[in-house]
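Usage

Read records sequentially. Each one opens with the input sequence:
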Amino acid sequence: MIIRAEKDSDITAIETLTYSAFKDHPHHEPGAAPTEHLIVNRLRDANALTLSLVAKVNNQVVGHIAFSPVLINGETTNWYGLAPVSVSPEHQNNGIGKALINQGLAQLKEHGAEGFVLLGEPEYYNRFDFKALPELTLTGVPAEYFLALPITDSIPVGEVSYHPAFFE
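and closes with the structure output:
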């Protein structure tokens, strides 16, 4: 497996992969079409993809992860949202998502990231030391599913806002 930054030639593969990875996802309304691929496209179009990595196996894109900046209390921070992370259904449960997450976190830490947030399953993301922090909230989301990974000892307090691309 090779993990590298996305290239323009990967965009269609990322879109197809992300759609298929989230098709029939248990957190979507039954029968609802995925929108995660559209979020990635809108982040890219808005130049708001801080980091976009692909995982390739046999020269095929089989995984993708996106990181974008978040605001805390409406202020620019050095915190990033991890979302979405996608692995093609036929390659899931083979460590590709884990490798993408670890690589993305490491790269952004090297560039001074102070923390990360995500909306996800605690059972999965706890293995990366993400946990619910009472200092950080996301409107409308149960606290146990809004997880954070601080890098520094200074944890901001307040409401987190994702880029508008997540809601268009």
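Summary fields computed downstream for this record:
- The chain has one domain: 2-166.
- The radius of gyration is 15 Å.
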